Amino acid sequence: MTHARLGKKIPPSLSLDVEFDLPPGVTALYGRPGSGRTLILDLLAGFTTPASGRILVDDAIVFDAAARVNLPARRRHCGFLFQREALFPHLTIRQNLAFAAAGWPRLERHRRVADMLERFDLAESGDRLPREAPAEARLRAAAARAVIGQPKLVLIDDCGIGESLLARIRAVSQAPILLVTDDLDLCCTAASQLLLLDNGRILQRGAPLEVLDQPDSVEVARLLGNFNLFEGAVAALDPGRNSSRLDFEHFSLTCPYIRGHFRGDRVWIAVGIGRLLVHPGDETRGPNWITAALVSACERSRSVRLEFAYGITAEISREEFARQKDNKSWQVEFPPAAIRIL
Amino acid sequence: MAADWSPVWLALRAAALATVLALALGPWLAFLSRRHPAAPLVRLPLGVSSSLLIAYCLLAADFRWVLAALVASAFSLPYLMRASAAAYDSFRPEYLNAARGLGASEWRVFWRIARPLALRPVLSAASFVLASAAAECGVALILARSLRTSTPPPAAPLAGIVAIALAMHYLGIRLDRGSHGL
Known about the structure:
The complex is a heterodimer. Chain A is of the alpha+beta class. Chain A contains nine helices and 22 strands. Chain A has helices at residues 37-45, 93-100, 106-119, 135-147, 163-172, 184-190, 208-213, 218-224, 318-324; strands at 3-10, 14-21, 26-31, 52-57, 60-64, 69-70, 78-81, 153-156, 177-180, 193-198, 201-206, 227-238, 243-247, 252-255, 266-272, 277-280, 289-291, 294-299, 303-308, 313-317, 330-333, 339-341. The mean pLDDT of chain A is 92. In chain B, 80% of the residues lie in helices and 0% in strands.
């Protein structure tokens, strides 16, 4: 088992207090810069000492504040992929790998280095200095160096790693991986657990798709950044019909019955921007259809983000936008199932 | 009459030994003491050491170049520690952390990573140390000898020691210029 409970204050404002398990596979750590993501990795690796807490790596205690156990970084067996490039600039890529494999006898070391060069497609770059190798090869080399010593925990800072390189790392190392990333798509495809970190606290944890679809709080929805957030008042509650009506500043919405609230209560709702539907025309054809003027359209790689009046944001496919871009007026539909009460 | 060059050789020998001593100990001590709270005090160049060296060269009845080297190292060691510490601080901390994370001991981190990366600035500092010690000791010895014999100081050895010091300074500047960018 790999488990961490960490406490550390970094003046002036960051106070880290987190506890989490790292099961086998990839755990993604998502948060804003400055929320303590890299600090968590540094504490686990032993580069910084926590003020309180306990760290178990593969059932071995590497840090325990109460028992005054604090193993140095070299004895923690953590492979680390840094955010900034950290290949030793005066050693070739082969020598970088050999440095990391120094604990093995000479023949075994050579075999491992050759094996890693092959597995990470570094045969051509092996005898080059890092600055002479292309950026992608340098990242692969850093990954190979991190796992060549068979670490018990792999820590990957936000270094622009992709799914394929992550798969190569997993093919070589069975150790749990803690991945700091800003890429929510990568979290969904590669991670089995997602930790959402904000200002030193874990706001929510769980399976990535579950967390992304069902934020627990306004803070989580804001952190994820792909939700429409509105604050409104409960206008009607009908448990018999399993429905509620919420009044907002510019529109009303009908959604499933909200338990534990009374009429007049203020509530927040979150609706995923990808789950809103947009239609042409100026005639509302359902309870949750809202006529809203299109303010701007921003094309992205696979979709188009539409900003409407009243602070409504929707995201549709490029094909859908091509069909509707000449609309004179727009209807935005809030499917009741997509409305999440916070 | 041929000029007496012996003060120049004595000064060079003393300066060279002082520099070698400082080079052998300074970078490693600086590496060990990087995070120690008292490290800045240890690294303070002792301002009195130059005066001590000059006084010793001027006043010693029985001049011993090894003793002069030890006095000179009282200046050169803290200076090299200071230069080494500045060099270690100038490159990315990730390099040292990466080496530690890969299981390297502090000595191995120093020998395989910190020392090669800091080589040029440390050598640059060493050449300044050599220039400074050779010039102070050499000029003081020449003046002492001329005072004792009541003769004017010989121009050629004086010019020689100044030329050596300038050459060492130039080398130091060249090395320092090429040491940035890690």
